[in-house]
Amino acid sequence: MMLRSVFRNARDFFPQRRFASGNSFHHGDPLPITLTPSRDEVDRLQLSSRNIEAAIRSLHKDGLVVIENVVDHPSLDALNEVMTRDAYALRDKPDSPFNYNPGNIQQDPPPVLEHFHKSIFLNRVASQVTSTFLGPRPKWTFCSGNTAMPPTPESPPQSQPVHTDADFSHPAHPFALVVNIPLITMTPENGSTEPLVKKGSVVIRDLRLWHAGKGNHTPDPRVMLAMIHFAPWYRNSMRLAFAEDIRSVIEGQSELEVPVDWISRDKILSNYLNRGFGNSYDFNQTP
């Protein structure tokens, strides 16, 4: 969803830029910080104090941070299989929910238990970063994705216009973070962010960051999930819609506040591919 134009615009949005691998920082590099946690951090699903500091610093300076090796690959593979199939079904709908051009579609993951992988949707490293940055128990009220579709003769690869998802009157300080999780490695060929983002990574970005989706030049869809964690004080009124069979998983965690409308499995499976376009969601807060 973010690419070269994102980070160039981020220089205007956040004044300084740094790059890091692990705890090694390089001043003046035009790339964002990428953190590679230690084996112990990955096993414990918790970043060290130094890496948390690096992540928070990057979010304040650049508006985003990339954290590698924190999402389970088998879970990504399983979800990618079903979402790739769904992507073609969405593309072929007469009212396909595209974002600016037909090659970039808004796509929700299937909200039922067998596809709800905790490593993806309740990623503890992502929640550790968002709760440290925004305050305890951020509110998770948005769960969708952006899919860059393979080119067709009618729809060659196109870039989105550079835009921000915070296109409303909002606080001047941070109030929401987007947790982006690619289901496959993202490269310049398939609609990547900049730099290359490896499979198993999370990209955490400030909702206010300007960005643009890029075209996919490969024969396979590139799915990237987008989950928004709002600050606990931010009065966003959106609610998630999940199948009843996920209730025990959501109620069994304590890292996030998750407002949910619980819906029967049959009903939600018949409707989850009929959600709104990207611009139809309201990220504002009540007065």
UniProtKB/TrEMBL annotation:
Residues 147-166 are annotated as: Disordered. It comes from the Eukaryota. InterPro entries: Fungal_Metabolite_Diox (IPR051961), Phytyl_CoA_dOase-like (IPR008775). Residues 150-159 have a biased composition (Pro residues). PANTHER family: PHYTANOYL-COA DIOXYGENASE FAMILY PROTEIN (AFU_ORTHOLOGUE AFUA_2G03330). It holds the Pfam family PhyH. This is Phytanoyl-CoA dioxygenase family protein. It comes from Byssochlamys spectabilis (strain No. 5 / NBRC 109023).
